[in-house]
Amino acid sequence: MQTDCEKTVLKIMQRIPGKTNLDGMAYLCELVQELEAPGWFVDLGTYHGRSAMVLIQSSLGTRQGRKVITIDNYTEGPDAKDPDAGSPPDFWAVKGRLKCRGRVQMVYGDVADVPVLCQGQPIALVFVDADHTRDGVLACIEAWKPLVSEGGIMAFDDYGSPRWPDVQPVVDEMMADWERLDCRGSVVAFRRKE
After folding, report:
1. Measured on CA atoms in the order 21, 23, 26, 31, is the torsion positive or negative?
2. Which domains can be identified in the chain, with CATH numbers?
3. Structure pTM?
4. Which of 70, 116, 128, 136 could form a disulfide with 52 if both were Cys (CB 3.0 to 4.6 A apart)?
5. What backbone phi and psi angles, to 5 degrees, belong to 69?
6. What is the pLDDT of residues 58-115, one digit of tens each?
């Protein structure tokens, strides 16, 4: 059974604050539903938990029982603390929101450090929406790209954003050896070649 991505994402967006737009979140949902590579999903940059919830809800009808690992250190930089963004959410409040989804594990830590629970596990998809600086995006790619299963996906938020000009060039350079899929809303995705 396939989820109606736009409808599912709209419901999640009404309940959980976040920064990724509807088109980008719906695209992430579609990527999840079409993904055949084995492994877990990793969400880098939890914030309020919107993208983690999209990942888990999108995979419910796929019969694959995917686990979602979502990682954040909850120390957003000064550029993220504009009036629209507000301050970082409380880790425990977000953890409480996601706890009802038994397949979601929240990790408090650096997104470029692979947690012990992920080591040796197949990774099917990594969604990168954390530190948007050149060094931050580069660190995420260097840490997680080698762990993605053949046919797996890395997706990036804020691709092409004038607010985060480092994202697109770093992603284009570092992901050039993977198949570029699509860019919808603010999300671009790449598939590891088999």
Report:
1. negative
2. 5-191 (3.40.50.150)
3. 0.90
4. 70
5. -110, 120
6. 887 666 668 999 999 877 654 554 545 556 677 677 777 776 557 888 898 999 999 9
